[in-house]
Amino acid sequence: MASLLRSSTLRAARQVRPAAAAASLSTSFVRTKATLPDLPYDYNALEPYISTKIMELHHSKHHQTYVSGLNAALDSIAEANQAGDARKAAKAAPLLNFHGGGHINHSLFWENLAPASRDGGGDPSGALKTAIEKDFGSTEALVKQFNAALAGIQGSGWAWLAKDSASGTLALVTRANQDPVAGSLVPLLGIDAWEHAYYLQYENRKAEYFSAIWNVINWKTVGQRFEKA
Ligand SMILES: [Fe+2]
């Protein structure tokens, strides 16, 4: 990620006038910091399925921590890169994966949700519906398998519906901690199985959370991601 950011900065540097270019290249590159995205709905909009307090803490505290951690990891890698210190850069890589994954996963997650009175709940439609029926038999069967995958996560993690961009087929996968879905798999719909996502409301009854969240799943967003993937 850091190398991509540096490439774009160097591209930008090449576009400045020659007189300014030397000065620009002699200074450290400037990158845009990751920021916490606004939610597309209010904290209380997913009641009664996800409580206001959970949404507020999950977004403003937990997600913010991943954003801050990602920026700190990128700063550390940039400093190591400038100093030619590969050992320091390698040391920061796990933090980049954890906090970068946390930021990416939660940014997708908020868009996966919508108030039940708006786009939340219901059933998928169009090309996504056809693909789900082809690969899982029915939406009901997909939800059943999804909930079983969530229940099978040991410790913290996520379950995802993803599209294999090579074969075009759908896949249900789990990831530990904040590991992002990567490679040929494009994440379409993720459900957060960390305790911070449900414990304040559902305590140890996490199966109730996995069952309730389908009332606020935004299938429209999932369908749009499917068609773009
Ligand atoms: Fe989370």
From TrEMBL:
- State the top-level EC class: oxidoreductase
Any one GO molecular function term: superoxide dismutase activity
Catalytic activity of the protein: 2 superoxide + 2 H(+) = H2O2 + O2
Matching entries from Gene3D superfamilies are given as: Fe,Mn superoxide dismutase (SOD) domain, Iron/manganese superoxide dismutase, C-terminal domain
Q: The Manganese/iron superoxide dismutase C-terminal domain covers which part of the protein?
A: 124-225
Family statement drawn from the similarity comment of this UniProt entry = Belongs to the iron/manganese superoxide dismutase family.
User: Which PANTHER family does UniProt cross-reference here?
Assistant: SUPEROXIDE DISMUTASE 2 (PTHR11404), SUPEROXIDE DISMUTASE [MN], MITOCHONDRIAL (PTHR11404:SF6)
Q: What is this protein called in UniProt? A: Superoxide dismutase
Q: Which gene encodes it?
A: SOD2_1
